[in-house]
């Protein structure tokens, strides 16, 4: 294990009915609130009214930034920053999934940033100041509710870039699994795959002797496999939604990668896809991840053997390490397929024409990953395997 420091300041408020506390928690940070929401689901499920009631009870003054789209745009961030500066907003509250939360974070950092908000994403280094952000989560996927990341798209430049800063850690996140009952089947599946991908990015590592981190990771994947079956059968199964929600939060709050190398190449490779084709992040990962696994296997089978045995109980008798590892990868693809996830780029009508361009953009800030360090040709090969 390597040296590490771990710090995560987000207060997690988990469980049924906890949204009623949104007012009192927000009021700790001031009176003027910017409420950020997406394309309408929060109104349809009645959550908007509950949050507004809680705000009213706490005597808060509310301004709104709404209509945040999946793969959220920098144009909305600019709009939010302008409102915050004009109205002297004290705290930004996101009610939604990752796209809404990431927009809220980028707005909060943009308020303190001297320059156009897009520069925060393209500059060397990270923004180190933001006004407070609070979250009411409606979709289990990105873990944005307990990390300092924000991923924003710029349609003009066809880029999708991230900031990672402790300044953007939400001050609190309210996680009521009931608020995820209405997530449509395909987004439930994309969310589960995104969570699994976050675990994989940290699990597949060459750092030796990390049994605690490994068993946490394997436990999350096994939970997701079990609960994905339950939730797709019954979207209103409380315990299943709760376990998936907790999985999402724990998968990318920093814990799984303490004391070890992590990878994140597949995320960078996927972000090029969703930047250009505007496909769901989890859908892109479903296509790419098993191919990344196959591609990097040449760098060492041990971790993949461990994964195959501990997660899928692959029978090892008479099999080489390579065969066991491949069986685990195949099981991963089968699990994704069984949930109805896309398996090939062709499922999104994506052909060969932009693969070169995407591979070049993916490595434009340097090679990717650590399990196997990927150059442009490697990334291109993973795209080709995914056609
Ligand atoms: O816009 P509304 O109407 O709210 O509908 C949303 C949206 O269409 C809907 N939805 C959300 N909660 C719902 C619901 N529908 C019914 N009932 C509910 N309770 O779901 C759709 C997808 O929402 P979105 O927020 O886009 O999904 P997700 O949470 O998967 O976020 C994806 C974005 O996060 C980025 C992705 O790249 C992508 O841009 N990521 C952010 C990360 C982070 N901040 O740490 C890490 C991830 O790896 C990822 O890159
Ligand atoms: Zn992700």
UniProtKB/TrEMBL annotation:
The keyword Oxidoreductase applies. CDD domains: BDH. Keywords: Oxidoreductase. This is Iron-containing alcohol dehydrogenase. InterPro entries: ADH_Fe/GldA, ADH_Fe_C, ADH_Fe_CS, BDH-like. Residues 10-177 form the Alcohol dehydrogenase iron-type/glycerol dehydrogenase GldA domain. Residues 188-386 form the Fe-containing alcohol dehydrogenase-like C-terminal domain. One of its GO terms (cellular component) is cytosol. GO terms for molecular function: alcohol dehydrogenase (NADP+) activity; butanol dehydrogenase (NAD+) activity; metal ion binding; methylglyoxal reductase (NADPH) (acetol producing) activity.
């Amino acid at each position: 294990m390597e040296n590490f420091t771990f710090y995560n300041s987000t207060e997690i408020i988990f469980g049924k009915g906890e949204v009623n506390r949104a007012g009192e928690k927000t009021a700790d940070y001031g009176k003027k609130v910017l409420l950020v929401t997406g394309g309408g689901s929060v109104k349809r499920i009645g959550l908007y009214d509950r949050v507004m009631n809680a705000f009213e009870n706490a005597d808060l003054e509310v301004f709104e930034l709404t209509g945040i789209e999946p793969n959220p745009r920098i144009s909305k961030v600019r709009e939010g920053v302008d409102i915050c500066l004009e109205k002297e907003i004290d705290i930004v509250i996101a009610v939604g999934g990752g796209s809404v939360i990431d927009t809220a974070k980028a707005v909060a950092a943009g308020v303190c940033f001297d320059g156009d908000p897009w520069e925060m994403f393209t500059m060397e280094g990270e923004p180190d100041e933001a006004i407070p952000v609070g979250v009411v989560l409606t979709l289990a996927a990105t873990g944005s509710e307990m990390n300092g990341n924000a991923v924003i798209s710029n349609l003009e430049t066809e880029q999708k870039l991230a900031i990672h800063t402790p300044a953007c850690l939400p001050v609190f996140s309210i996680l009521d699994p009931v608020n995820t009952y209405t997530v449509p089947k395909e987004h439930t599946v994309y969310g589960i795959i995104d969570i699994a991908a976050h675990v994989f990015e940290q699990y597949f590592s060459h750092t030796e002797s990390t049994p605690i981190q490994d068993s946490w990771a394997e436990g999350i994947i096994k939970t997701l496999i079990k609960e994905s079956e339950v939730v797709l059968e019954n979207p209103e199964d409380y315990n299943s939604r709760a376990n998936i929600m907790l999985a999402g939060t724990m998968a990318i709050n920093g814990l799984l990668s303490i004391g070890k190398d992590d990878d994140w190449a597949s995320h960078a490779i996927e972000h090029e896809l969703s930047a250009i084709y505007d496909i769901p992040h989890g859908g892109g990962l479903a296509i790419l991840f098993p191919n990344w696994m196959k591609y990097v296997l040449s760098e060492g089978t041990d971790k993949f053997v461990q994964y195959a045995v501990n997660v899928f109980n692959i029978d090892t008798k008479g099999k080489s390490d390579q065969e066991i590892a491949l069986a685990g990868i195949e099981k991963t693809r089968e699990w994704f397929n069984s949930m109805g996830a896309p398996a090939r780029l062709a499922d999104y009508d994506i052909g060969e024409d932009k693969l070169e361009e995407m591979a070049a953009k993916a490595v434009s800030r340097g090679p990717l990953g650590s399990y196997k360090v990927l150059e442009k040709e490697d990334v291109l090969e993973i795209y080709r395997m995914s056609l």
